[in-house]
Automatic annotation (TrEMBL):
<dbReference type="InterPro" id="IPR014756">
    <property type="entry name" value="Ig_E-set"/>
</dbReference>
<dbReference type="InterPro" id="IPR000572">
    <property type="entry name" value="OxRdtase_Mopterin-bd_dom"/>
</dbReference>
<dbReference type="GO" id="GO:0008482">
    <property type="term" value="F:sulfite oxidase activity"/>
</dbReference>
<keyword id="KW-0479">Metal-binding</keyword>
<dbReference type="InterPro" id="IPR008335">
    <property type="entry name" value="Mopterin_OxRdtase_euk"/>
</dbReference>
<dbReference type="GO" id="GO:0043546">
    <property type="term" value="F:molybdopterin cofactor binding"/>
</dbReference>
<feature type="domain" description="Oxidoreductase molybdopterin-binding">
    <location>
        <begin position="83"/>
        <end position="245"/>
    </location>
</feature>
<feature type="domain" description="Moybdenum cofactor oxidoreductase dimerisation">
    <location>
        <begin position="285"/>
        <end position="360"/>
    </location>
</feature>
<dbReference type="InterPro" id="IPR036374">
    <property type="entry name" value="OxRdtase_Mopterin-bd_sf"/>
</dbReference>
<dbReference type="GO" id="GO:0006790">
    <property type="term" value="P:sulfur compound metabolic process"/>
</dbReference>
<dbReference type="InterPro" id="IPR006311">
    <property type="entry name" value="TAT_signal"/>
</dbReference>
<dbReference type="Pfam" id="PF00174">
    <property type="entry name" value="Oxidored_molyb"/>
</dbReference>
<keyword id="KW-0560">Oxidoreductase</keyword>
<protein>
    <submittedName>
        <fullName>Putative sulfite oxidase</fullName>
    </submittedName>
</protein>
<dbReference type="Pfam" id="PF03404">
    <property type="entry name" value="Mo-co_dimer"/>
</dbReference>
<dbReference type="GO" id="GO:0020037">
    <property type="term" value="F:heme binding"/>
</dbReference>
<keyword id="KW-0500">Molybdenum</keyword>
């Protein structure tokens, strides 16, 4: 079922993507905010961040008031504590090698001279909502760069190749199998995934040079995939005949689940890949014309979002028609005409165009998941109406 969802995302995404690739996404629509409105802060707030050298910045949901996340508000995560490599763009080169007929070595100017492609996409950290202090690791930006597929073509991928690895500049000491190592941040994906037309080597973010925090001079932007896949500070792309099994592929970003098949339980460990269908209430606002709940939905092509207040019925929210793109979050809103004074809970759930529903917290997909990654269960927040 999930594989079908993914295929649906890719088929529909790619078709729609073709229309958006050149012109970029429409920014014409208006975010559902109202003049003079005030925001009611959530009563439940994230825990204090115990790892400021790793989680540097997160989205404050109450502040969400535009479809595009400005660069200085975009969440910033480094898996290696404190790593923030300052790359000298003048001497930097992207190495493109491994099982290719013609290895390439490309400067930033070489990359910028190649065909330009833009994509507006939402990036969510795979750990988002999985830890009490990690709740705003998500943002939506317009990225510009050059597509990866033509480079693979130009380098000439050899027949035995099945996998492509993306190596970052940042490295750290790791220990596993009784061995101390020094490993770079790196991720790999299948050659078929790497060849998808939306895969982008990005050097611009929202019309500015890619900021250092977000991977200057070059990052992979993998639309529809969790944050970890979007390797920053890229230095090497390697075509291989095997999967990468380093720290950040084999040990981190692994989801452990108990999966039931024919009454028998199988424990699985799977690598984090594409994002999963999810939504979140962002903010409750009050204005002269009443109270409104606004939120976002992402991870698959969104067909519908529903909101539930306290133990009431699920009510369909309005999807913002103006600002949509195949790999970007959809903004939704729901008017709440007569909220009674006191404390309330607000839950949202998204349905994708293939009919899949965002899982409830007691769905085995979530309840039988043992690691914090890929926490796409329905989110409930609490608010007090004065
Ligand atoms: N080189 C490198 N790339 C990386 C990381 C990293 O630590 N090093 N972290 C990954 C993770 S886990 C996430 S969620 C995203 C965060 O991207 P952002 O900081 O631009 O929001 O970058 C990914 N790419
Ligand atoms: Mo992440």
């Amino acid at each position: 079922m999930l594989d079908l969802t993914r295929r649906d995302l890719i088929l529909k995404g790619s078709a729609a993507f073709a229309a958006h690739a050149i012109v970029g996404a429409s920014r014409a629509g208006a975010f559902p905010s109202r003049p003079g409105e005030t925001v009611l802060p959530w009563l439940d707030q994230p825990d204090e961040n115990p790892v400021p050298g790793i989680i540097h910045n997160q989205l404050v949901w109450e502040d969400l008031d535009s479809w595009i996340t400005p660069n200085d508000e975009f969440f910033f995560i480094t898996n290696i504590d404190g790593a923030r490599p300052e790359v000298d763009a003048a001497s930097w080169k992207l190495e493109f090698d491994g099982l290719v007929d013609r290895p390439l070595s490309l400067s930033l100017d070489d990359l910028k001279a190649r065909p330009r492609q833009e994509v507006t996409c939402t990036i969510e950290c795979s750990g988002n909502s999985g830890l009490p202090f990690l709740t705003g690791a998500i943002g939506n930006a317009t990225w510009a760069g050059t597509p990866l597929a033509p480079l693979l073509q130009e380098a000439g991928v050899q027949p035995e190749a099945i996998e492509v690895a993306f190596w970052g500049t940042d490295a750290t000491d790791v220990e596993a199998r009784d061995t101390k190592m020094h490993e770079n941040y790196a991720r790999s994906m299948t050659l078929a995934d790497a060849r998808r037309p939306e895969m982008l080597l990005a050097y611009e973010m929202n019309g500015e040079a890619l900021p250092i925090d977000h991977g200057f001079p070059l990052r992979l932007v993998a639309p529809g995939w969790y944050g970890s896949v979007n390797v920053k500070w890229l230095r090497r792309i390697e075509v291989m005949d095997h999967r990468l099994e380093t720290q950040f592929m084999a040990r981190d970003f692994v989801t452990v689940r108990e999966v039931e098949r024919d009454g028998e339980t199988f424990w699985t460990e799977t690598s984090v890949r594409h994002m999963r269908l999810k939504s979140a209430p962002a903010r409750v606002t009050r204005a002269e014309d009443g109270t409104r709940i606004t939120g976002a939905a992402w991870g698959a092509p969104i067909a519908k979002v529903e909101v539930r207040i306290d133990d009431g019925p699920w009510q369909e929210a309005r999807l913002d028609p103006g600002e949509r793109a195949p790999f970007a979050w959809a903004i939704w809103s729901h008017d709440w005409p007569d909220p009674s004074p006191g404390e309330h809970t607000i839950t949202s759930r998204a349905t994708d165009t293939a009919g899949n529903l965002q899982p409830a917290m007691d769905d085995p997909l979530i309840a039988k998941k043992h690691t914090f990654y890929e926490s796409n269960g329905q989110i409930t927040r609490r608010v007090r109406i004065g």
